[in-house]
Fold these 3 entries.
Entry 1:
Amino acid sequence: MNVSELKTRLLNLVDVFEEKEDLLTDLDRAIGDGDHGVNMVRGFKALPDNIDDRSMQSLLKSTGMTLMSNIGGASGPLYGFSFVKMSQVVNDEIDKDNLKVMLNSFSEAIAQRGKVELNEKTMYDVIERANTAAQQDEALTFEVLQSYADLTKDIEATKGRASYFKEDSKGHVDPGAQSSVYILNALIGDEF
Ligand code: ADP
Ligand code: MG
């Protein structure tokens, strides 16, 4: 994957988030404050004016900075920091091996920044499972990514705003887990 291919994929995400805005809003209304859909749309809408495509590194870094300052909430700094971290390991051309390194860095960034572990009902549940699958060369289709998000449904949240709902957070997919399905799907494409 070259710079212009990745740029297209990142810019196309605004269409995905506009289509899924209501779904993410509903999920966040159930176990949060209902702003996740609008947050993600705002972040990716700001991308065309701020993305720097002079190199693969600048592409990911500028995406991270833009997401950090435009998504807001808990998820903005987490996604933003992750893209900045991935910019530090990306090659000029992304192949399967480089994508593995990027996914590992994505997962480490969330763990570090969110102080989160598996099964706390967050985006990390999807990102870390995708990372593990990639390292083992397993298929990572949209359906597989979605199945990771669906696993968050039956567990109790112990991080973020959803943790205030305690037992009542059970029965709903985590909004950040759902949004990370779309982000990972764009990054991975048909590489795995
Ligand atoms: P806020 O909770 O501030 O309203 P958002 O609604 O945009 O922010 O994002 C909520 C999502 O952020 C959650 O669904 C969860 O996936 C993710 N999240 C929150 N706190 C953490 C954390 N400490 N580590 C990882 N992800 C987190
Ligand atoms: Mg929210």
Note: The radius of gyration is 15 Å.
Entry 2:
Amino acid sequence: MKTGNNNEIRRICCIGAGYVGGPTMIVFADNCPHINFYVVDISKEKIDAWNNEDLSKLPVYEPGLDKLVRECRGKNLFFSSEIEKNIAKADMIFISVNTPTKKKGIGAGKASNLIYVEACARQVAKHAKNHTIVVEKSTLPVRTAEVIKKILGETQNSVTINSCKPTFDVLSNPEFLSEGSAVKDLNEPDRVLIGGESKEAIDILSEIYKNWVPEYKILHTNIWSSELAKLTANAFLAQRISSINSISALCEATGANIAEVSRAIGTDNRIGSKFLDSGPGFGGSCFKKDILNLVYLSKHFGLPEVANFWESVVEMNNWHQHRISRLIVQKLFGTISGKKILILGFAFKANTNDTRESAAIQICKDLLEEGAHLVIHDPIVNSNQIAIDLESNSIVNKNKKVIYKSDNYEGNWSYTDDINSEFVNTHAIVILTEWEDYKKIEWSNCSKLMKKPAWIFDSRLIIKPSEVLAADLNLWQIGYGT
Ligand code: UDX
Ligand code: ADP
């Protein structure tokens, strides 16, 4: 065994330097100075960004991450494009590649596309030497470990007797980090879940975690339970958000107040207070994808009622996002064609530069379809990313201003990094991400410049109603009945 007689892991390779692989290995490296970590990726651009001297240009924005990169990079943490070499030298390999929802073919729209995982397993099978522990880190559909094992196993069988025959153990070790608090979540996890068949391999991975995680928090399960537990955790969290968002609509209709309802139910110990903040609908790369995976799995195993139950969580989220856009149009006298609307926040939540499945995407698309001119601001997300998400191209208009447009909708949008310069002639301001900056807006100043009657739409419940109303502005807040 390459890990030596004492099973010591000296070198770990992580395939995939994205939102999961990057922060996870950085925190591992910080906690395990005796192990060398090599994070590899097919995207040279991403590797270059991780190696950038300017730490504000790292490809993932996470509070506290730049400090750890400064401390570990070049010591026991390396970002590299040399995938094959680093696979060959590793004692343990983490697979942290993306698993987007399939767009075409069997399971389209629900099942995960495992093309990257499969490619990765084939690379490992081809280049690994001796015994290697392969750890599934990305969120994967249940029974993916079987696919990985099969691919690795095939290669094992095809290697000739005289060559150095690699052997593998496959473990599932799902990631529960939440973007924006990834460093804290990785340093102080509620639990670490390790699923697998080989007790020896599970113990080796547990030993690594024990460098900073108390032993009682490290749970061992069979491999399928580990994979299913990850999907279920995300489905339960997403379900809470759809539940509270559905009640927010009822609050607005009845005169109840969602913050009071959340507080009242959250004090029940059995329910708990977390994940009860009503917002514009859940986003992020995991929730929707994982629920759709559960739906696909349930249908596959002949459980349509289970599939329908979970699918309704996603349907409620979609409905909720459209509800907000419809409501904006209604409040602005049924038409927003040509009206300037300032969008505050594009990330799927605060403290991340990630926009995957952000509610802002659907809500902005809806408003653009109605012909609005949006001015979009986000403290971290840049205009290139927004252009990709809104499927639009840039043009320079007659005033030499960059405007973005698409054939898919009537309206257009522009980007701003200075919201104070954009209040003039704005009909409405829509808060979609709960960035701290937006809590500090001087509503009295902004009101003087806006087009009256002007509206503030607060989908995150972050502003003080008294300040907005005193500034002679109309206010809609999520879940607030009048
Ligand atoms: C989630 C899981 O929390 C994490 O354990 C898993 O590993 C990956 O998926 P993440 O997607 O980073 O993490 O974000 P999370 O904090 O869970 O928020 C997801 C979405 O729900 C965001 O759009 C957020 O704004 C929204 N949300 C969250 C609410 O609308 N209300 C809440 O009370 C909490
Ligand atoms: P996640 O949120 O799951 O981390 P990301 O998309 O942020 O997803 O990151 C996944 C990373 O995996 C990407 O940077 C992508 O380039 C990388 N990747 C995908 N397939 C491979 C592969 N076969 N070898 C190396 N890297 C890969």
Note: The pocket of adenosine-5'-diphosphate (ligand 2) is lined by residues 15-21, 40-43, 46, 83, 96-98, 116, 119-120, 138, 285 (CB under 6 Å).
Entry 3:
Amino acid sequence: MPVHVKSWKRFTGREGFKVKRGKVYLVGAGPGDPGLLTLRGKELLEHAEVVIYDYLANEEFLKFTGPQAEHIYVGKKGGDHTMSQDEINSLLVEKGRDRFVVRLKGGDPFVFGRGGEEAQVLVAAGIPFEVVPGVTAAIAAPAYAGIPLSHRDYAASMAFITGHERGDKAESKIAWDKLATGVGTLVFFMGVKNLPEICTSLITHGRASETPVAVVRWGTTPQQQTVIGTLQDIAEKVVRANLKPPAITVVGEVVRLRDELNWFEQRPLFGRCVVVTRAREQASEFKTILSELGAHCIEFPTIAIEAPPSWEPLDAAINGIATYGWVIFTSVNGVRFFMERLRLTGRDARDLHGARLAAIGPKTAEALEQYGLRPDLVPNEYRAESILEGLSGEEIKGKRVLLPRAMTARDVLPETLRRWGAQVDVVPAYQTVLPRERSTEMMERLISGEIDCLTFTSSSTVSNFFSLFEQSAILPVLKHVCIACIGPITAKTAEEHGLKVDVMPSEYTITGLAQALRSHFENRGK
Ligand code: SAH
């Protein structure tokens, strides 16, 4: 792994080292919003050989890691510890001896994260370590609930406190009497279970019972939930709301500012769970727009793009690439898989110099341009037939034509070219498959009522969705789910499958669809 060795030197700064030594980075993953990981944290993840992560560290960060990385989940959710702290410590020492380890912890590693203890274990074992602070939930969860921890009018001091210790414990490390009256804003971690005792202790030790309190669950994530009350009634309200850990509890006058500053939970699609059915490769733009509007997006690609069952035909074509007069690309994926295979077989774009290139539409042409290739032919219309119109003027007779494309595709193009006397090789460069694995999970989510909306951005996403489920089983559970389609053709396909389409934009684009969803849910109210 040459890339890794280079980066290793860069990080350790030990240029002359002959024997590779390990190092452990205790990295704060932030409170949950993926945007709140530090740049340093991301950089280290990219180079990690081993990532050891917690229940509270957003799993989405694993995508930053390279193919060399080993991912180890060590759990820790309330009582159900996947691994005990001792086991985690041993693991850190074992992996840290000769590997580049990122120990990813929720929030900040040195704030109630036992990061201090882990660092001590590393020191004792003689393993070098570094700490990368993270955005702690103590600050971030209140911030996303519209609560600043300090404010000139309300609070000039604050304390972070563990809620694990019961207020009535004799040997408590917490000076309840001093905290209750001596500190402006109190922030409790892990305090849901002991909330009644915490509130009673504070009142008994002199804090006014009408002091406002906020409990913020899963702060900074699309599932954020906030309950507001006073020291007197918050415990009861939390039980009534059935609010479970993980949550941060904020006690103090600053909580009043939420009425004015509650920005995050007021976004138009906040609290809405929207399913995106596009292929993973195409989902990200739509997801970004929906997330900015506050939606919780679930990716459920109804189509997956994979390598063909065998590379042999494509490799043979690439081997003889100099013999082709034309290479015709009919999709972005065709371009990507072809170019990647060209590269992996030791060639590059220069090997295409003898062939003329055609792209079926502007997106495919753009994909070629990204490899520094300018297509000789791009028809005006996005249809296989249009390529033929463009080509008819060309001298195609007797030429060899290569069509690297999906495993199954329409035959008009090769057949017509053959009729014109071309020698056509159709080779599979990729295949589209139905990703069945997650359909049971999706069914469960739909039945539980967790999903608010299903979005379809093409007819094929609709028909693929229906081929993943039994029609008789899926239709009844979709009754109470908002069905959103990008345009009339997609909507027609949805209706043909028995769906009632609730949302369709007047502008048939991703942005149009997102805006239509926004109006739909705003009109419906929360
Ligand atoms: N090191 C972490 C805290 C770990 S202790 C940090 O700095 O944030 C675990 C506790 O953190 C949870 O029980 C909960 O009280 C709090 N917590 C962590 N992430 C949270 C989140 N997204 N929203 C609310 N509370 C959170």
Note: The two ends are 52 Å apart (CA to CA).
